[in-house]
């Protein structure tokens, strides 16, 4: 039996030994938002159980935003502009905002790959 695992931008076929009965765990389908940017703006302005990001960042001199590296399918380019705008609106200076790509043990994301990562 062969199963295809998601790997990079395609799949990686994995041949299983005879007699192996795999259990494939898949994430449930998530609804597609009609207005994702508006949803992000609302989440930053009205988070559950916390003051808005603008309130938390008010008066701060720096902020570090961690994002996943290119190996994770996270829509950084969708939420990052709104998040940075909220920090700037709160008065955090542009030079005080750092975006850190959390690569763990993976290689650095540079050039075109980095541009694709942050949108």
Question: How is this structure best described in words?
Answer:
The chain is α+β, with helices and mostly antiparallel strands. Helices cover 31% and strands 20% of the residues. The chain has helices spanning 36-45, 53-57, 76-89, 111-118, and strands spanning 2-7, 10-15, 63-68, 97-102. The strands form two sheets. It has a two-stranded antiparallel sheet. Strands 3-4 form a two-stranded parallel sheet. Strand 1 and strand 2 (10-15) form a beta hairpin. The chain is elongated, with a radius of gyration of 19 Å.
Descriptors:
119 residues, alpha+beta, two-stranded antiparallel ribbon, 4 helices, 4 strands
Task: Round the mean pLDDT to the nearest integer and report it.
Answer: 91
Total of DSSP H or I helical runs spanning 4+ residues: 4
Question: How do the strands of the widest beta sheet line up side by side?
Answer: 1-2
Oligomeric status: single chain
How would a crystallographer describe the biggest sheet?
A: 2 strands, antiparallel
What's the Cα radius of gyration?
19 Å
Secondary-structure element sequence? EEHHEHEH
How far is the N terminus from the C terminus? 39 Å
Which structural category do the helix and sheet elements fall into? alpha+beta
Helical residue percent band: 25-40%
* Global shape: elongated
Total number of strands: 4
